[in-house]
Structures are given as structure tokens and as C-alpha cells.
Design a protein that fits this description.
Two copies of one chain form a homodimer.
Chain A lengths: L2 H9 L10 E3 L6 E3 L5 E11 L10 H17 L4 E11 L4 H18 L2 E9 L3 E11 L14 E5 L4 H10 L6 H8 L5 H6 L6 E4 L4 H11 L3 E5 L14 H8 L7 E5 L4 H11 L3 E8 L5 E4 L2 E2 L11
Helix pairs in contact in A: 2-3, 4-5
Chain lengths: 313, 313
């Protein structure tokens, strides 16, 4: 199969899929895309490599769903609307069943997030997926991580630890419920929440490497320190019956792709309404200060955060 | 070294580099980029994998220069101005000398093409570089490959075969002059030519997989056929003393990243002036017709094009 055929067979999106602001999609040297007036372009790239970011022989349908969610989450974290993505795919062999499953799930995930696949490159090598996502936001409105204010409350969406717990079960080849599994294979990129936080949150990012390492990144970018009460971390239901410290270990390991954001205390009412409207919990887990040290407590005791989350290198 | 440190140490562009239309660069979930009014966004992704797209143990300085040129060439092919790129880098180990050489050359290539590195992801795996480039063009002005007209003359910029000849020497571990080597390691993305062809060319693309396979792609996209006289192919100086058929083999193997474009015969004078202004040869190698068959001749004899160029899979 030539690369042209491979693209036609698997990667040109179905005609039924909406292509928003796409003047020219797959098939030329570049895609041609329309940015509405008074909007900025937001972009981010993520790579998922077999045996590093997902287990060996991982179901290609799960892989595509997870890859899109992980990458779209970066757009959500800045309050952007998702628009376009490009795929750099490296696969060990031309396996048509794998390609059919992967591409079908990829198109489904794109339809779900209303993001259009507009370009790609396919090579023969170890299994790896790099996605570059592009989105738009009204000029000057993007949520950044370096704009938190001292005194802001620190919030996290949804719940934590389900993904790390599911992965540990997968790696130990233990049974796991579909609901828990979905926390790992299909994290929810919080696009609606991110967009709704514009005008409410002072700073925002997504939690990919773990809530502690990521909270410290947000604080550092803003010249602040974090003060987190770990007993407040919203835990995934699967962790409910676990000893508290074990549950917190799962909840700080990352891969949850929830949003971590800071807001002035005066925004509390708006956040309560927003949580109701989106049917999504928004939990205050601490605050930001201009202290020189981060502070972590568990049930009012100082808590040592040796393992802060995922390290890439 | 953490990923944050690796990015700070190697991939944040030097302060001296111009960042055009970059509201926020590396360091947050996404980059924030400004699209001028009345312009469209163009984007393309290319992956270069060790032992597939470049030889094993290839000099990292050469690799970065080549990767940027190959990817920027897709913007040139559509008449775009280069603006931004994101890098997905997979490397087998955290080799600081390799990273220093690669990143220095990457920043130099970005400065040369006036394109800004605005995001990236680095993972540990087999050596592979995926670049997504973004550029802009006045709305509706992009050069496409599906808009050639029957009767158009078919032109190619620069000369062909130097890159394939240099690679054959590298793979045979034979001596090769710096000038020939540079055809492979530092192809010239024809940005100025692409932009100047707006309003002159009816269709345009870059030659990556070989002039025959690429000419047929352009013709097919436009619903036409090609008629190419192979003795007209502009040959790299290194091929001058070679038997003609051997030279043509090199000249049709691809990796030259010259522009292939079609233009109405009435544009001939403009093209002659443009070639002089840019100090770049623009050679008419044939034409496009509504015939049902492609036609290739060499010295007025029908020529069989068995090997049409590079196949990715």
C-alpha cells in the first residue's frame, strides 16, 4: 500500500464529520485553515510512545481515544475551542486491522471533541503517536499558568487517581471494571470547563504529570507558592476503600487530565453555579501565597511529597 | 535531567531570535499565536526517522538543518510565509552533546527561515523528529496542487539529483565534496519563490518523493496528465559527467525539495524576470494536458518510468 492509499483508506475523515474553518484538508502540501477575526491560535504537541506512555499491545481503539483526549486537554487548559489536529504516526508494520481500528476510533474522538484531522505523516518504526492540536480563543482571553495571584484559591475539576489505579491494574494483568478502565483509556478533556473559566480563573493548566508537580509549575510560573491540604483531593470512587496514604499516592501520580486552576475567593459563587451547570465537581484543595516555601498537609500534619509525579526523562 | 530542564537548557529559543506574532511561546500548555487580519493559517507535519529518512549516526547538526528545511518546504510549496513550528523529538538517551548540537542547529535553521519554535515534546525512544510547521498566507491566495489548467507549462526550480547522489555516497561511505553533501543535508526550502509565484503559477507543490511521482500527483489532483521531456530536467553539477540515464535516475529519486509548478504560457516573461531576481533557475520540463495518459520522453524516445521515486510504505 502506498502512503497516498494509506491516507485515503484510513485517515481522510468521513464526509459526515463537521470540518470547522477548514478551507483545505488532507491531500496537499499543507492544510489551509481559517482563523475568525479577533481570535488567536493556540497550539500544543504531545507524543505517546509504546511501553512508555501506554502498555505494549494496547488496544488501538483505546490508544486513539486516549491520544486525542490527552492532546485536546492542553487546549482545554487554556480555555480554547478545539479546531484542528495533525498526526505523526509511526507503526512497526502495515497492519490493516490495527489501522482500521485506530483510525476509526481517532475519527470518533475527533467528532466528539469537534476537532478536524487536517494533516499527517506515517512512517514505519516503533509504535508512536504525535498529535499537534490547534485551537482558537478570543484575543487576549487565553487562560495562562503565569497569571495566578497571591491569595487565590486553588481548585481541581473532577476526581483524581482513577487513571493511575487503572494503569496499575492493567500492568498487573488484573481484572478492572469498565468504569475504572475508562479513567485511563478515555480521560475527558475539559473543553467546556476551560472555556467557561475565562473571566473566572486567574490561572489554569491541566494535570498531566501529577497534581503536586503541576501545582508547583503553576505557582512557579506565577512567582508564588502552593499550600495544599491533601485530604481535600477529590478521589476517584475506586480509591474510596483504600488506606488514605495509598489513595493519595494514586491521586498524585498524574494522567488524570483534569484542570487545575486558581481563582479569587470572590468567584466562589460563580464556581458553585458552574459546577452545577457542567455537572462536574470543582474542589478547592488549597491556595496560593507569596511564601517562599510550598506547604503540603494531610489532616493538619506536614506531609512529605517525595514522589511528585511523572518524570519524562 | 527533568523534561522542564531539558526544554530550558536546549529548546527555548535564544533571546536574540525574532519571534514574529508569538504572544506566548514555550512554557505553558499551549503557545498563543497571532494571525494577521485577512490571512489564513497553513500547516503541515513531517517525520524523519533514523535509518529510514536519514542514515544511522547522522550528525545531529545536519539532521536538524535538514529536518527544518524539509518541513518548511511544504509552506514554500503553497506560497506561505513561515511563522511557527512545534517539535516532537524521540531520542534513545539523554545525550547532552547530541542535544546541544541538534538544538543549536535547529535554532540556526529557525532563524534562517524566520520561523519560531513555539512548542515541543521530548520522549525516550528510537531517534525520530516530527515537525509541525505553521505559516500564513493572504486569504484565498495559497498555491494549491489541484488548480493546474490544461495547456499549462510545467516548471521546476533549481536543479535535481544532488541530494540522492550525495546520499548514495554517504551510504557507500565514499568521499563527497561539501557542496554535494549540502544538497542532502541542507536542502533550500524555496520560501521566496513560493511567495513570488502567487499570481503567476496556477498550481504548485514541492518535490519530496521524486519529480515523476510528484508531477503525477499534481496532475491527478487537477484532473490532468503530464507530458515531460526528461532531457530537460535541470541536473545537479555533480551529475554532469554521468551517463544520461544514470543522471536521470538520480534526478527522479526525490529529496530535492525544489518547487514544481504550472503556469500559463503567457507568464513566461514574468518567470524569466523572477529567475533573475531570485538568482534561481526555473526550468520548463514539459506541460499538462487533458490526455488520459501521462507521457515521458527522453530525446524524443518514449521513456519507461518504472521507478517513480520514494515509497513510504
Amino acid at each position: 500500500m502506498s502512503e497516498d492509499q494509506l491516507i485515503r483508506n484510513y485517515f481522510v475523515p468521513p464526509h459526515s464529520h463537521p470540518m470547522r474553518d477548514v478551507s483545505l484538508g488532507i491531500g496537499d502540501d499543507c492544510a489551509i485553515l481559517d482563523i475568525p477575526d479577533n481570535h488567536q491560535l493556540l497550539t500544543s504537541v504531545d507524543t505517546l510512545l509504546e511501553s512508555v506512555h501506554f502498555p505494549k499491545n494496547f488496544n488501538p481503539k483505546h490508544l486513539a481515544a486516549r491520544a486525542v483526549a490527552v492532546c485536546v486537554s492542553d487546549l482545554a487548559a487554556m480555555g480554547a475551542q478545539a479546531r484542528w489536529l495533525t498526526l505523526a504516526l509511526s507503526i512497526p508494520e502495515n497492519n490493516s486491522q490495527w489501522l482500521a481500528d485506530f483510525s476509526q476510533s481517532l475519527h470518533e474522538a475527533c467528532a466528539y471533541y469537534e476537532i478536524s484531522l487536517v494533516g499527517g505523516d506515517t512512517v514505519k518504526g516503533e509504535l508512536s503517536i504525535s498529535l499537534t492540536v490547534m485551537g482558537i480563543v478570543e484575543t487576549g482571553k487565553a487562560l495562562r499558568r503565569d497569571t495566578a495571584q497571591a491569595g487565590d484559591l486553588l481548585y481541581v475539576s473532577g476526581n483524581l487517581g482513577g487513571s493511575a489505579f487503572a494503569l496499575s491494574k492493567i500492568l498487573q494483568k488484573q481484572e478492572v471494571s469498565t468504569e475504572v478502565l475508562s479513567a485511563y483509556i478515555r480521560p475527558q478533556a475539559r473543553l467546556s470547563l476551560g472555556q467557561a473559566l475565562i473571566g473566572i480563573a486567574n490561572a489554569c493548566m491541566d494535570i498531566s504529570d501529577g497534581i503536586i508537580i503541576d501545582a508547583e509549575r503553576l505557582a512557579k510560573a506565577s512567582g508564588l507558592s502552593v499550600d495544599i491540604q491533601l485530604e481535600k483531593l477529590p478521589l476517584h470512587a475506586a480509591l474510596a476503600s483504600m488506606p488514605q496514604e495509598q489513595a493519595i499516592n494514586f491521586a498524585t501520580q498524574g494522567d488524570d487530565y483534569e484542570l487545575l486552576f486558581s481563582a479569587n475567593v470572590a468567584k466562589c459563587d460563580k464556581l458553585v453555579k458552574l459546577a452545577t451547570n457542567l455537572d462536574l465537581s470543582l474542589t478547592c484543595i488549597g491556595s496560593l501565597s507569596s511564601d517562599s516555601q510550598h506547604s503540603y498537609t494531610l489532616n493538619n500534619q506536614i506531609y512529605s511529597t517525595k514522589s511528585k509525579g511523572y518524570s519524562h526523562f
